User: What shape does this take?
Amino acid sequence: MTGTDNIPTQQRVWQVLSQVPDGKVVSYGQLAEMAGLPGAARWVGSTLRKLPDGTPLPWHRVITSQGRIAFPADSDSARRQRELLRREGVVITGNKVNMALYRWQP
DNA sequence: GGTGTGACAACAA
DNA sequence: TTTGTTGCCACAC
Assistant: This one.
């Protein structure tokens, strides 16, 4: 097609992300795949980076496939993310989340 | 249209 | 387990 079919890829990611429920998390790869972009995990991360501070989107529910926070454990961003997750009831142990328990599976 | 980039993922040592 | 390497994708120059 010549471009009439493209809904902004970014927008599709936002849409999927907005569906992640409280207390659940998804990996970058999973999010990419759900948005119809298998293999674009890395790109998703780069894109989330552009979100403004006050975004209504649950960016904090996106973590690595290993259940780790993608930021350095001692960074402010990592702390903020842990705080938000914990606030939703997600137990974090050593900068890690138990994917078996909190992974979002629609 | 080629090149570099990154909040990743899978695999080798 | 931790560290390094390679593959991926869409985007910005």
About this structure: The helical segments of chain A are 9-18, 28-34, 41-48, 76-87, 99-102. Residues 1-5 of chain A have pLDDT under 50 and may be disordered. The first helix of chain A runs from residue 9 to 18.
